[in-house]
Design brief:
The protein is of the alpha+beta class. It has three domains: 6-231, Rossmann fold (3-Layer(aba) Sandwich); 240-280 and 336-359, Beta Barrel (OB fold (Dihydrolipoamide Acetyltransferase, E2P)), CATH 2.40.50; 284-335, Nucleic acid-binding proteins (OB fold (Dihydrolipoamide Acetyltransferase, E2P)), CATH 2.40.50. It has helices at residues 46-54, 96-106, 111-124, 140-152, 170-187, 198-204, 222-227, 232-237, 352-355, and strands at residues 6-17, 20-31, 35-39, 61-66, 69-70, 81-85, 158-162, 190-195, 207-212, 215-220, 242-250, 253-256, 259-262, 272-278, 284-286, 293-302, 307-312, 317-322, 331-335, 342-344. A six-stranded mixed β-sheet has the order 6-7-8-3-9-10, sandwiched between helices. Strands 13-12-11-14-20 form a five-stranded antiparallel β-sheet. Strand 7, helix 5 (170-187) and strand 8 (190-195) form a beta-alpha-beta unit. Helix 2 (96-106) crosses helix 3 (111-124), helix 2 (96-106) runs parallel beside helix 4 and helix 3 (111-124) packs across helix 4 (140-152). Residues 348-359 have low confidence and may be disordered.
Length: 359
């Protein structure tokens, strides 16, 4: 991997509100031309992190570097970033052209240059010909594109997006995910995206930052985060998982769900407690006579591309995804190959440098 230049560095950033800590010693860097997503549940600190970068919040401690220079004392309008919010904050009394051109007019740019930039942005967001329309007459998706165009027309080095797709319906949200990623790649600028939607993060991001309670739990590319979750919270939050308490018997052998399983993990020690994650799609339904575990199918749901089965193995229950349906009430065997068993130390949180090996 070719190391990209750091554009933004958050160093030991903390933020308190009335004695309540919402960010606790955050360290994070963002590289040029990278699509980074801050992902986590409500209240985890992701929006506060974005607002600190934008200049709308001041941290209680720490440094914020932009290309190596501390910018905490620089006001928002002088930072080389622009922000798109979930509520688009368009001006209802202005048409599409004037909404997009608003910032350029404040800078007193020549009219010809303003027209060129606005037309370029309308082409980028696939709204050529909409210049004279009032924004109130546009759909939610079109309004969102205008908000993005208004932010991009000022040619920021970083675009900050705070859950911009949250107000859209599911079909339009999926379409806009692809459009945003395509836009970012064409423009070659840095996007910092905030969401609680795991699918959005996995679909669009070069790098995902998983947050919880003001801390960063894991940083990595989407495949690394999904395949190698740092702890049980990440495994449960990113996709669906079967998570068990287990014991690492020795290298490449783990005990969980009442029996021992070969695995590929090592270096945990002997007879130490671990968390074990097995994704539903990584469990194979087989005959009772060849399964590592045997259970009864308690429920079957059709999910479009697969069936979701809940299988009762006595004290333990497994969620299994399979393209082949087995009838409810059937007795089946379950097989898990060593590579599909992921072992974690409880609340183990590796740093980004380790995760970057997979980027």
């Amino acid at each position: 991997m070719i190391e990209q230049e750091h554009l933004i560095d958050l160093q030991h950033i903390s933020k308190d509100y009335d004695g309540v800590t919402v960010l606790d010693d955050i360290n994070l860097y963002i590289r040029k031309k990278e699509f980074v997503t801050l992902l986590g549940p409500s209240g985890c600190g992701k929006t506060t992190t974005l607002r600190i970068i934008a200049g709308f919040e001041t941290p209680s401690s720490g440094k914020l570097l932009f290309e190596g220079k501390d910018i905490l004392d620089i006001p928002p309008y002088k930072r080389r970033v622009n922000t798109v919010f979930q509520k688009y904050a368009l001006f209802p009394h202005l048409n599409v052209f004037d909404n997009i051109a608003f910032g350029l007019k404040l800078k007193k740019m020549p009219k010809d240059e303003i027209k060129r930039r606005v037309q370029s942005m309308l082409e980028l967001v696939n709204l050529t010909g909409y210049e004279k329309r009032h924004v109130d007459a546009l759909s939610g998706g079109q309004q969102q594109r205008i908000a993005i165009a208004r932010s991009l027309v000022n040619e920021p080095e970083v675009l900050l997006l705070d859950e911009p797709l949250g107000a859209l319906d599911l079909k339009l949200r999926k379409e806009m995910q692809l459009e945003l990623k395509s836009m970012q790649q064409r423009l070659g600028i840095t996007f910092l995206y905030v969401t609680h939607d795991q699918e959005e993060a996995l679909t669009m991001s070069d790098t995902i930052v998983v947050m919880r309670d003001g801390h960063i739990l894991q940083i990595g590319d989407p495949k690394h985060i999904y395949d190698e979750p740092a702890n049980a919270f990440v495994a449960d939050f990113i996709g669906e998982s079967n998570i068990f308490r287990g014991t690492m018997v020795r290298d490449e052998l783990v005990a969980f769900a009442g029996r021992e399983f070969p695995c590929v993990d090592f270096g945990f020690g002997e007879n130490v407690p671990v968390d074990v994650v097995v994704r539903p799609e990584d469990i194979t339904v087989v005959g009772e006579d060849v399964g590592q575990l045997v259970g009864t199918i308690r429920s079957v749901l059709f999910k479009g591309v697969h069936y979701e089965m809940i299988i009762d193995c006595g004290e333990y229950t497994f969620k299994v995804h399979s393209t082949t349906m087995q009838p409810q009430g059937s007795r089946v065997g379950l097989s898990i190959v060593p590579f599909n068993i992921h072992i974690m130390r409880p609340m183990d949180t590796p740093k980004r440098e380790a995760a970057d090996d997979a980027v």
